[in-house]
Amino acid sequence: MKNHTILNLGPLLIAVICFLVGCKKAEQNSNIGEKTNQSVEQKFIPKYGNLYFDYDGIDHYHISTDESSVMALDTIPNRSKEDQLKLDIIINKTPKSINDTEFIKSLEKIGFKKSAITSHKFKKINEVFIEKTVNEILEYACVAVYRDILIFKKKEKIVGIAKICFDCHQKQIVGTKANTENFGQDGDYEKLQQILYTNQHQ
After folding, report:
1. pLDDT of 157-175, one tens digit each?
2. Whose CA is closest to 89, among 153, 145, 171?
3. What are phi and psi of 63, to 5 degrees?
4. 8 Å CB contact between 125 and 117
5. Can you say how many angstroms the Cα of residue 182 is from the centroid of all Cα atoms in its chain?
6. Which one, of 65, 89, 87, lies nearest residue 167 by Cα?
7. What is the reported pTM?
8. How does DSSP classify residue 15?
9. Which of 74, 158, 168, 185 would be 134's cystine partner, CB 3.0–4.6 Å?
């Protein structure tokens, strides 16, 4: 009778063992799948395209002003030509094209300070001003205040202009046929800011 009971329990024990082994394998496969997905995310490699500009020199213009001062300027009803130009440059869409370069002559008059970017920084700048795929796209909803302007030159001819707002991660770029949609993503705004302000262009 006892042997008969053991025989009857045999198939049941086998089924239980198989079930447990199957669950263990499923759990292992699940863990492998998760690790694979994590590896794919960690190994994201951007694909690069065209550089934005072909240049041999860059002039950097910077103005120290806060947002409240700019907004106060916007409320003045009868602004001077200089104040209007300052407003157009800092929060509006000047320049609208690469042919609109007349404003550059007045940048220092309205408070911008000019400095030249040394050529040994061009390689790092090219890593920012280039077409590339990104892992994640972030957008800010704040109003851009463009305190930094980069003028790209080739044999003294202006070939590109980039206005940058580091606070709101926004840009206005003219003079390039490259796709600038992903500009500044994946930490490139921070990278560019470090390039521009480390050692004051030395």
Report:
1. 999 999 999 999 999 999 9
2. 145
3. -125, 135
4. yes
5. 6
6. 65
7. 0.76
8. H
9. 185
